[in-house]
Design brief:
By secondary structure, the protein is α/β, with parallel strands linked by helices. Helices cover about 35% and strands about 15% of the residues.
Amino acid sequence: MKKHNFYAGPSILPEVTLKKTAEAIHDFAGTGISLMSISHRSKEFVAVMEEAQQLFKDLLNIPEGYSVLFLGGGASTQFAMVPYNLMGKKAAYLNTGAWSTKAIKEAKLFGEVDVVASSDNKNFSYVPKGFTIPEDADYFHITTNNTIYGTEIKYDMDSPVLLVADMSSDILSRPVDVSKYALIYGGAQKNLAPAGVTFVIVRNDILGKTGRAIPTMLNYQTHIDKGSMFNTPPVFAVFALLQTLRWLKDLGGVEAMHGINEKKAALLYDEIERNTFFKGTVNKEDRSLMNVCFVMAEGREDKEKAFLDYATSKGMVGIKGHRSVGGFRASLYNALPLESVEALVACMKEFEQANK
């Protein structure tokens, strides 16, 4: 039976990424040596790192004056690195879910944090609107996609101060005007690569302003100066990331991918609205293209386990909602084919018919 992988992360990767990476484990770049055993200083891997950085720039149309870094530590380390490098006295944050809450906690170790707005009053089911960004903040931080609750900021906002974004789960899923951001970061295990590598896009001229002594490994300038090679990078994950970037370029780039993602999300959201057994959990205008969250409709709650069991029997994998919210979550990351969404929708229709 074909499996349809809706896991929220680590998540589905393109078949070509799996194939090329598996091949490289045995013989990397014709060296006769495994990717797992190659020196990161070898000319073959240096070429991988340089191509991956350039492809990232090309796919997102990153302007001159920005650096692309591939680091370890996950996005969670960036929660501290951002304020360490950018906060003088005060930073502003928008709280839209669990990950922004964690970022806020870390930032408070470095200075004053102004939470300009939060959607926690309605279980993070919407993206706050009409807030004011304080002009005396050193930067304003947003989390563009909320993997647990299923909301997304799908536009590039204007900010009177440096704009910083955690794009862990929607990077390269839609066009982004990078020039509006001072720094973009995220874990790669949703749309790019296996867990283990973190991407950072940083505008070079924003660094070195705080007067703070920064530990070497936590200083962005360290990694810019050394081309993400100050210490041993996550070689395996960077190689896989490059294969995904090549795949995306061959597909037509971010614009083409965005069209596919909109089609996938519309198909599933339309079925949730139509089906008498299910209902959505977030404001329609704020619905994520990447993580579709839904629950059983009122009066149907007793069917939750039955549907999960039925969907599992049909090859649906990873649709159980996050443990903190329950219900269901279907993650529609770039590598998930339209065929898998069609299969889930068919499964939902069959369940409705069988339980009328």
